[in-house]
Amino acid sequence: MGAGFLGAAYLWVKAAHIIFVIFWMAGMFILPRYLVHHQDGLDDPAERERWELRERRLRNIILTPSMIAVWLIGLVLAVNIGLLEGIQGLAWLHAKLFVVFLLSGYHGWAVGYSKQLATGRATLSTRRLRMMNEVPALAVTIIVILAVVKPF
C-alpha cells in the first residue's frame, strides 16, 4: 500500500514511527517511577547518585532521542496524509497531535524534575508524584483511540 509522497515506503515509515513510540512510551512509563524512588532516596547520597545516573542514561539514550524520532517521523506521516493541505476528516489527527504535544510537555516536566532532584530539591509530595505516574498511560490511551478509531 502506497500513500501520498511516501509511496511504497509509507508502511515502513509508519512501522518506524510505531517502534519509536514504543521506545518513548517505555521510557515515559519508567521515568516517573524512577522519580519516586529518587525522591525517596534523597537522604542517602549514594542512592541519590545512582538514581541520577539511571535517569540521565534513560533520558539521553532512550527518552529524548525517541521523542525526537516520534515527532519527526510522525510529522512526515501527517504531512503525507494531507495535514497541510486542509484535507477533510483529519480532526482526529489534530486532536492526536495536541495530546502528543501535551505528552511532550509532560516529558519536559519529568526531565526537569529529574534534574531538580539531582540538586536535592523535591517540591512535590510523594503522593502527588505517584499520581503524576499515570499521565503517560492516560495520554497514550487517548492517542491510540484517536489514531485507531478516528472518532471524528
Percent of residues in helices comes to over 70%
Q: What is the tally of beta strands? A: 0
User: Number of helical segments?
Assistant: 5
Beta-strand portion reads under 5%
Q: Which structural class matches the secondary elements? A: mainly alpha
Unreliable segments (pLDDT under 50, ≥5 consecutive)? Answer: none
Layout of helices and strands, plus pairs?
Layout: H1 10-40, H2 45-80, H3 91-118, H4 126-132, H5 135-149
Helix pairs in contact: 1-2, 1-3, 1-4, 2-3, 3-5
Question: Main traits of this protein?
Answer:
single chain, 152 residues, mainly alpha, 0% strand, elongated
Structure description:
With 152 residues, the chain is mainly alpha-helical. The protein has one domain (4-149). Helices cover 77% and strands 0% of the residues. The protein is built from 5 helices and no strands. It has helices at 10-40, 45-80, 91-118, 126-132, 135-149. Helix 1 runs antiparallel to helix 2, helix 1 (10-40) runs parallel beside helix 3 and helix 1 packs antiparallel against helix 4 (126-132). The model has no long low-confidence stretch (mean pLDDT 95).
